[in-house]
Amino acid sequence: MKATASPSSNRLDHLDVLRGFALFGILIVNFEWFARPLQAIVIGAEPGLSGADLVIDWLIQTLAEGKFYPLFSMLFGAGFALMFERAVQHRTPFWGLYLRRLFVLLLLGLGHMLLVWAGDILVVYSLCAFVMVLLFRNTPIKRLWKWALFFFVLPLSFMWMSAAFITLSQSDPELHAQVMAEFEGDAQSMREAVDQAIQVHAEGSWVDNVGQRIRDAQFTLGNALFWVPPILGFFLIGRWLIQTGRLTHPHEHRMYFRRWRTRGLVLGLPLAVGATTLLYRADYTIPTLPVATGATLAIAAGVLLSLSYLSMITLGSERLKFLAPAGRMALSNYLAQSLFWTWMFYGHGLGLWGQVPRWSHLLLALGFFAVQVWLSHWWMARFRFGPAEWLWRSLTYWQAQPMRRSN
């Protein structure tokens, strides 16, 4: 019998609501990077912002930056755990199928990264998932969150070592001058790379932008030590939430979610404010003690606030069901966001680079996402999968999956 896939008859709607909410948050964060070079992420906020532009940028940095990719990562880990549990329950093959699924996701991510927008997260997700399958497929439930903490701390340890080295080198003025000159050289190279990317994105052809995206991808993957471990950690948290029953039977764990809704906000918001205050104009290429402190606060705030957001949306999922169709086709909507907004901003499209004020990004994101929610309702009423999801499934099973809903 040929393998086919169909939507689960016992689909957990609150997870689709969570994906829809996370998709909106990802758009809010990514909007800045559709209109700004990716390398600028390590050299602080966009210079010259004031008034409403500064307020909106600061709020997004505090409440959204680093808080929604954790949420999406937890949902990715949760999806893995659900698929594994259902495969065991129905005694169907899993590992070979799941590895093919990851390989197809990797190919989709590489296409997105090189042909559309280098800020892609799919490549990182697929690579992290390969690591998870290789090293943590049989990890006991009680150890999952402990490993997650390890992966949150791992990149910070390297940053703190660098910051400590800079600080200790001050006892030797000659050594300190040499060390700072090297870091300043790296910072200057990064600023030059940002200026080059601005010119390409604003004026270059699509082919020019493909070349720039290759350089962007090298930058992203070259800093994998700081990206990959936290994402892997959030994968493991997502698995823990499923395997402990918290996300499969949320009605039985409402007290847990109420506690984390409050705990995450009360503890996470002050940490997020502190992180933004320390890092807003900071240059990450020079890992001083304030930068290391800010990065530590940012990771802690990301964990706490993403869990708070997850808890709030889970508790209110019945009232937020309108987000579920967008969550069911999250991959299609994610790719559509990149396609549309890079075409709007880049020189090979409408060329609006540098012409859209920062204060308007939030309104534009909200309006665009509202359209996506409406289109998702229309699409899912007629089809079983989003277009990208259909392609992903069909390539995974190596057979075209049934697309239209039966009447």
Short description:
This protein has 407 residues and is mainly alpha-helical. The protein has helices spanning 13-34, 51-63, 68-90, 95-115, 122-136, 141-168, 173-203, 206-222, 224-243, 254-279, 289-315, 324-328, 330-345, 359-380, 387-397.
Reconstruct the topology from this structure.
Layout: H1 13-34, H2 51-63, H3 68-90, H4 95-115, H5 122-136, H6 141-168, H7 173-203, H8 206-222, H9 224-243, H10 254-279, H11 289-315, H12 324-328, H13 330-345, H14 359-380, H15 387-397
Helix pairs in contact: 1-3, 1-13, 1-14, 2-10, 2-14, 3-9, 4-5, 4-15, 5-9, 6-9, 6-11, 10-11
Describe the structure.
- This protein is mainly α.
- It has one domain (13-167, 202-397).
- 73% of the residues lie in helices and 0% in strands.
- The protein contains 15 helices and no strands.
- The chain has helices at residues 13-34, 51-63, 68-90, 95-115, 122-136, 141-168, 173-203, 206-222, 224-243, 254-279, 289-315, 324-328, 330-345, 359-380, 387-397.
- α1 (13-34) packs antiparallel against α3 (68-90) and α4 (95-115) packs across α15.
- The longest helix is centred in the middle third of the chain and has 31 residues, at 173-203.
- 40% of the residues are buried.
- Residues 1-9 have low confidence and may be disordered.
